[in-house]
Design a protein that fits this description.
The structure is a single chain. 45% of the residues lie in helices and 18% in strands. It is of the alpha/beta class and 314 residues long. The chain folds into two domains: 15-187, Rossmann fold (3-Layer(aba) Sandwich), CATH 3.40.50; 192-311, N-(1-d-carboxylethyl)-l-norvaline Dehydrogenase, domain 2, CATH 1.10.1040.10. Strands 1, 2, 3, 4, 5, 6, 7, 8, 9 and 10 form a ten-stranded mixed β-sheet that branches. Helix 7 crosses helix 11 (267-273) and helix 12 packs antiparallel against helix 13 (299-311). The termini are far apart.
Length: 314
């Protein structure tokens, strides 16, 4: 019998975190601290995680996990109840081999990745009926192996590809809430995704193209601040036309929230500075394509996307 949106997670589900970067380390450690059986699929940090565990530096209190279940191959983990995808979208092709060994008849897959198109990609591997998304509103980075530092935020908006607000989406809220992570349910995957793009498109992009600068410098520069507002408005318009209507005050709220972050370096900037691939297509390219196909002029996003294409590794 195929999975349906009425299928919930068990009370204490087995969980595989695919990707032990900042996002996977932060949320996976919180889930593990709450007593859930969490396994991390890691590569470069594998030995460190096994020998030294995890350290979380957090706005609501630091903590360490001395004992961490970390593995190099998905076959070592086996079938789980929930797979949490926390790798960068630039590594999505690796999921074609990483994901299947983790899937059983009732396994759910939740992506915490940035941008558009991830749910459809995962559905092509695991089946649409398994897929949920979690859109993370958090400032977190990885200063060293096995360490995640949260500067602000941490809440997640979940949605089900099979119906938005469903019992199993709510079961994810219950699960993460129980680990001390504030959560809510979005009415659709699209509404959750486009909501975050209002911030991601301007700040992740301009932080790179304006000369590797932090968010405080973007807001302090009159021209960059205006460009930020223009990009936000283009994303808002595309979101509305595509059927994901947002609060008109959302851009102003995001700017206020960003001012409180201080000199924050967005994740795409950190990838760029480390000479790592940047999530060009999922954040900027796909937003531009979907907006343009819907008839929305997006000249500012087009310029930003074209400039990023000449600067970043993909």
């Amino acid at each position: 019998m195929p999975l349906g949106p009425e299928i919930k997670l068990p009370a204490s589900p087995s969980i595989a975190i695919v990707g032990a970067g900042a996002l996977g380390t932060y949320y996976g450690a919180k889930l593990a601290r709450s007593g859930l059986p969490v396994a991390f699929l890691a590569r470069r940090d594998l030995d460190h995680l096994r020998q030294h565990g995890l350290q979380i530096q957090c706005t609501d209190g630091d903590f360490e996990l001395q004992s961490v279940r970390a593995f190099k191959r998905p076959e070592e983990i086996g079938i789980v109840d929930l797979v949490v995808i926390a790798i960068k979208t630039t590594a999505n092709e690796s999921l074609r081999t990483l994901l299947p060994p983790l899937l059983g008849p009732n396994t759910l897959v939740c992506t915490l990745q940035n941008g558009l198109g991830n749910e459809d990609f995962l559905a092509s591997i695991a089946g649409r009926e398994r897929i949920l998304c979690g859109v993370c509103h958090v400032c977190v980075f990885r200063p060293a192996p096995g360490i995640a530092r949260n500067m602000s935020g941490g809440n997640i908006r979940f949605s089900d590809l099979s119906g938005g607000d469903t019992p199993r989406a709510r079961s994810l809220v219950t699960l993460f809430d129980g680990a001390g992570i504030r959560c809510s349910v979005a009415p659709s995957v699209g509404s959750a995704r486009w909501y975050k793009l209002v911030w991601n498109v301007p700040f992740n992009g301009l932080s790179i193209t304006a000369g590797a600068i932090d968010t405080a410098k973007i807001l302090a520069d009159p021209k960059l601040f205006q460009e930020t507002q223009d990009l936000m408005q283009e994303v808002m318009t595309a979101s509305d036309v595509l059927g994901f209507r947002q609060d008109p005050d959302h851009p102003a709220q995001e700017i206020l929230r960003t001012r409180k972050m201080g000199a924050y370096q967005p994740s795409s900037l950190l990838d760029y500075l480390a000479d790592k691939p940047v999530e060009l297509e999922s954040i900027w390219g796909e937003a531009l394509r979907q907006g343009t196909q819907a008839g929305v002029p997006m000249p500012h996003l087009k310029v930003l996307y074209e400039k990023l294409k000449t600067m970043v590794k993909v």
